[in-house]
Amino acid sequence: QGISWSTVRYMIGEVQYGGRVTDDYDKRLLNCFARVWFNEHMFESTFCFYTGYQIPVCKTLDQYFDYIQLLPAMDSPEVFGLHPNADITYQRNTSADVLDTITNIQPKESGGGSGETRESVVYRTAEDMLEKLPPDYVKARLVKMGALNSMNIFLRQEIDRMQKVITVVRTSLNDLKLAIEGTIVMSEASKNLRDALDNMYDARIPQVWRRVSWDSSTLGFWFTELLDRNAQLSAWIFHGRPKVFWITGFFNPQGFLTAMKQEATRAHKDWALDKVAVHNEVLKLTREEITSSPAEGVYIYGLYLEGAGWDKRRSILVESTAKILFVQLPVLHMYAVDST
C-alpha cells in the first residue's frame, strides 16, 4: 500500500516535534517543511535537505556512525532556512550576555591604585550631563497653539512625559553629586543612588531612569536620544509643526497616528472616526529632501527594517544584504482614508 505520508507529516508536525512547539507561526513553518520534505521524492538520489545534508544510504550501523561524524559540528543558519545574518545576531547577543555577566560580577568598590576613582569618574559625568540637560518646559506656550487641537493634545502628553524624565534625571544627578561630595549619606537605603553610581560608571542606564523613559544600549546613546527627543518637541513648540516627524522619538507613536486620524476626521465632516484607517506610502525621499508638509497626513522617518532590505528604486522589500542587519527606511507618508 505504500507509505501514508499524510500520517508521517501529522506525526512529525503535530505530535512528536509539533507537540513541543508553542508558537503558531513556528508550527506553520514546521508543517511547511514537513510537506516539502516528507514525500516519495526524498528517496531519490538527488534529494537533500540542504547542500551536503543527504539521507545516507548505508548497510551497517558503523557506516551510519561514520556519516554522522562527517557532518559539520556547527550548522550554518542556511541549513534552517535562515539568512546568514542570523549567525551575526546570535554571536552578537551571546557576546553581549558574556560582557554583561563580566560587568555585573566585577568589584563595585574603589580600588587602592593611583588611577582616577570611580566616584570621580561618575562625578565628572554627572556634571557634564547636568550642563547639557535641557531646561523645564514652559507649558503656557501650548495654550497659545490651541489646546483642543488633537495634535496639540498629543504634544502636551509627550511633553508631560519628557518633563518627568528631565526632572528625575536632574534630581538623581544632583543627589549623586551631593552623595559623592559627602553632603548626604549614600547608605543602603539610598538604593537608587547606589544603582545610579554603579550603572553610570559602567556606561549603563540607571534603573530609576529606565523606569520612566526608554531602553538603549549604552548611557551615552540614551542621553543623546534624550537631547534629540527634547529638540523635536521644543522645535514643535517654538517653531511650529515639523514638516517631517521622528516617530521613534515619541513615547506613544500609536497615539501620534491616532491624533493624525482625528485631525483627518475633523477635516472631512462626513467621516466617522471608527471607520477611518491609516495607510502609508514609502517615498523615495530622505528626511533632508523634504521641503514642505503633505496636503493631508504626516511625513515620518526613523523606521528600520530587520531581516529584510529595501530597494529604493523599485520601492519593494528585498533580501537582506550580507553583514547588514538593519536598513533605514526612507520617509513614509502616513495618511487616513475612509474605509466605509
From TrEMBL:
Molecular-function GO term, any one: dynein light intermediate chain binding
Every Dynein heavy chain C-terminal domain range: 93-337
Domain Dynein heavy chain AAA lid intervals: 3-86
Gene Ontology, cellular component aspect: dynein complex
Biological processes per GO annotation: microtubule-based movement
InterPro entries (alphabetical): AAA_lid_11 (IPR041658), AAA_lid_11_sf (IPR042219), DHC (IPR026983), Dynein_C (IPR041228), Dynein_C_barrel (IPR043160)
Listed name of the protein: DYH8 protein
The organism of origin for this protein: Grantiella picta
Gene: Dnah8_0
